[in-house]
Amino acid sequence: MKPLITDHGLPAQIWNSAPQLANIPVINTHSLVPEGARAVVIAPHPGDEVVTCGGLLQLLASLGHPLQLLSITDGSASHPGSRQWSEKRLSVFRPQESVEALRRLGLPMHSLKWVRGGFADSALSDQETQLTEFISRYLRPGDVVFSTWRGDRNSDHEVVGRASFNAAQHCAASYHDVPVWAWHWPERDQHLIPWERARKLRLDTWTVARKSHATHAYASQLKGEPAIGIAPMLPPVLLERMRLPYEIVFV
């Protein structure tokens, strides 16, 4: 079945078709992360920290909250079989893209706590216990943890989400899911979204612009290689969604 096409030419995915989006309760930064609390963002792959929380990170940094970023993998398996983007090249290049993306967000790089896990991407499903133990080492009571939704239909996202949730419980930290690919499910799957848990964090125009600019720092992910069947990891439809004036988290 071909996807439905909306009047603006984009497939009728949840992010641009679900009527529930307009009715999601608004939450503010202070309600998500109490004053003095540390925010911990856990990204399965380089770029996930911007796609999930690029706006929130900017708001928290402007309020002086301490920030901890955990990058679980280096994303080096994103282009299997590619000569241009071999695993060896990507293992170096993608972390450099993250540095540039965080700089574009305006984060305080001198004080940002950033840990790279070095796990192999696309191979996390058998390492959930090790992931939970790894994440637990960097959490402390009272932290507010954000990671990819445990129901996102991406194996790495779901495993990291579960490991982050379990580690947060173990360490007496709070945890929030952030959906990524769920917003690009077809509109017929709207009923599978836990709308009752969804909260909307509003972003101003400048914050949205910096987030979009940061997303474009991931040059290796913007173009695929059609000749060997590799699609862009950051397709135009996702970049379009990055310009929405809000982020949504599940509380």
From TrEMBL:
One of its GO terms (molecular function) is hydrolase activity, acting on carbon-nitrogen (but not peptide) bonds, in linear amides. This is PIG-L family deacetylase. It comes from Pseudomonas hamedanensis.
